[in-house]
Amino acid sequence: MGKKIVIALGGNALGNNLPEQMVAVKTTAKAIVDLVEDGNEVVVVHGNGPQVGVINNAMGEFASEHKEDPTPLSVCVAMSQAYIGYDIQNALREEFLNRGGKVPPVVTVVTQVRVDKDDPAFQNPTKPIGRFMTKEEAESEAQKRGWNIKEDAGRGYRRVVASPKPKEIVELSAIKAMSDAGELVICCGGGGIPVVSEGKHLAGAAAVIDKDFAAALLAESLEADMLIILTAVEKVAIRYGKPDQEWLTDLSVEEAQKYADQGEFAPGSMLPKVQAAIQFASAKKGNEAMITLLEKAREALQGKTGTKITKK
Ligand code: ADP
Ligand code: MG
């Protein structure tokens, strides 16, 4: 019997620039269509790191050339959702046609995700975005625009923004209606457009939501059976990269939490994935979270590979 699955696509699913993305989405489409072909109901979430960086930089250049205010980051995220959705929609259509089947309706939802104004992450911005600047330039921009800036690994100064936790998917009912009707929905791109409630208004926040956390919230909100996080490794490891590294296959939420607490997963890469998996698996008995390689999605679903996290 088919399952309701939310998949989260990582950086390797989209590449680092426009030409790379055109090629990468073909592989990505294969992985998605495999799951649809096996009778599953699939909703797709994707990252947007390099893409939103390019858009942010381009809009920044434009603004400084024309002496205009820079485009808000929330608007850049919206642009990235549309552009990435366009490429995935296109690749999916082609893959369905290649397999000689019917092309199901495929749709991208420009998605707002509400975050908490009081999220402590706003007090501690960690996520570097946009172009590199000299110290002087960075300080002047910080003064002028209220940006937070940080030195980035000896390469210059960059703006840093907060990465708050997603609280609510604003377009959830539209996503649910289309998914329930058998449409293939792409949503919450780049973790969603971060917004905060200001009375009736949803104000765009200068923040970046982690796409793995957004995918976990979406999976929970849609009462999905599975959350599959597709990335650049086939399994999660402990003692990762060390000679005595050990790949993990089947974990309880307690075991996963224990390893996370012991610092086995790198913050900013594997840790948020494991945390997102724990969050979804803990939400309801029977929920399954899986972390695996993009190309192995189908095999992982058949129980042949991947790291599975469940509530035991
Ligand atoms: P994505 O773009 O898919 O979000 P990331 O690069 O952010 O991917 O995170 C996945 C990467 O995390 C893997 O490619 C691997 O290099 C790294 N990683 C860090 N710690 C671990 C671990 N304990 N087990 C497996 N991979 C790990
Ligand atoms: Mg990542």
UniProtKB/TrEMBL annotation:
Q: Keyword Isomerase on this protein?
A: no
Give every Aspartate/glutamate/uridylate kinase domain span: 3-284
GO MF terms here are: carbamate kinase activity
The record's section on Gene3D superfamilies has: Acetylglutamate kinase-like
Under catalytic activity, the entry for this protein gives:
hydrogencarbonate + NH4(+) + ATP = carbamoyl phosphate + ADP + H2O + H(+)
Q: Which family does it belong to?
A: Belongs to the carbamate kinase family.
Q: Which NCBIfam families match?
A: arcC, PRK12352.1
Protein name, per record: Carbamate kinase
Provide the species name. Answer: Oribacterium sinus F0268
Q: What is the lineage of its organism?
A: Bacteria, Bacillati, Bacillota, Clostridia, Lachnospirales
Q: Which gene encodes it?
A: arcC
